[in-house]
Amino acid sequence: MRGVVFTGERNLEIMTFPDPTPGPDEVVLEMKASGMCGSDLHQYRRPKGHPQSATGVPPNPNPTIAGHEPCGVVAAVGAGVTNAEANIGDRVMVHHYQGCTQCSHCRSGWQQLCQEVPVKVYGNNAHGGHAKYLKVPANTLVPLHDELSFTAGAAISCGSGTAYGALQRMNISGRDTIAIFGQGPVGLAGTQFAKAMGARVIALDVNPQRLARAREFGADESINPGSNDPVEAIKELTHGRYADLSLDTSSNREARLNAIRSTKVWGTMCFVGEGGDVTIDISPHLLRRQMTLIASWTFSTIIQAECAQFCIDRKVDVDKLFTHKWTLDQADEAYKLFDKQSDGKGVFLI
């Protein structure tokens, strides 16, 4: 089979690999959709000869197929896989991590938090979904309901699921005003889900096109920090109270700082974007506001399944996130466009 491999310095190759065969407790998926995620760009941009991992796991020195938003159909099952886990023909998403499988984190569906073994991240240090087939342990599978498309399943498998998990972790409600910094694929999904949860959404981005999409997705207000002071604008929109909740999906230092500053007394601010840092005076902005500052890294298998059901129950059209659909042969063009981070979300249809 052929698979997309990032070779460094914004280059990639479509390489040939043997078709995978499932071992004990494993399955092979025939891929149908494989999403493009912003964290792919860490590997795509890395210097040649210097593998790096955006997730803190040891990188794989061998050519590794990219793509950690996989969705497809079970094509083969290995020994020991029960009917309750997987059957040939099942429509499934993948929770793209594997830990030891036995610790408390793994057994509760949070394999990425495993402290016992180096964690495998499919599409990062283990083969991912930008190929015809993908081999994974059966315990990473999450059912994909017939009501959802394969592209929707790909989005839920990372970007959209990450936004949903962060909102759930923040205990958002219909009483809240939330400021979402960054309206790329994760931020836009956050806007979409927050509106479906009943919240008032203030969307922020320096890209007018992304702000326009945020309004299409239900944002009540939009702010361009490049032409407005976002903290003062949020203060004005909230009658001097500031936002109940703020969410940063951008990884931008100034955006993160403004997200903290624009959160109310007793409010909650959440970091989602990978990488980067921020420096802030603790006393006036955190301590004396009684602020809760949290971080949210993707989601568990249970939350992934809840997100899929939420999309069905609340009729959230996750497919609207995708602005570009590609074939694997178009991977070079696809990632060159995605690298500009000025457009929407892309997906490979396989």
Please describe the topology of this protein:
Layout: E1 2-6, E2 12-16, E3 26-35, H1 40-45, E4 70-77, E5 91-94, E6 97-98, H2 104-107, E7 120-121, E8 133-137, E9 141-143, H3 150-156, H4 159-169, E10 177-181, H5 185-196, E11 200-204, H6 208-216, E12 221-223, H7 230-237, E13 243-248, H8 253-261, E14 263-271, H9 282-285, E15 292-295, H10 301-313, E16 322-326, H11 331-338, E17 345-349
Parallel strand pairs: 10-11, 10-13, 11-12, 13-14, 14-15, 16-17
Antiparallel strand pairs: 1-2, 3-4, 3-8, 3-17, 4-5, 5-9, 6-7
Helix pairs in contact: 4-5, 4-10
What does this protein structure show overall?
The chain starts with a strand and ends with a strand. Strands 3, 4, 5, 8, 9, 16 and 17 form a seven-stranded mixed sheet that branches. Strands 12-11-10-13-14-15 form a six-stranded parallel sheet, sandwiched between helices. The chain has a two-stranded antiparallel sheet with strand order 1-2. Helix content is 26%, strand content 25%. The chain has two domains: 208 residues, Alpha-Beta Complex (Quinone Oxidoreductase, Chain A, domain 1), CATH 3.90.180; 132 residues, NAD(P)-binding Rossmann-like Domain (Rossmann fold, 3-Layer(aba) Sandwich). Strand 1 and strand 2 form a beta hairpin. By secondary structure, it is of the alpha/beta class. The relative contact order is 0.16. Helix 4 packs across helix 5.
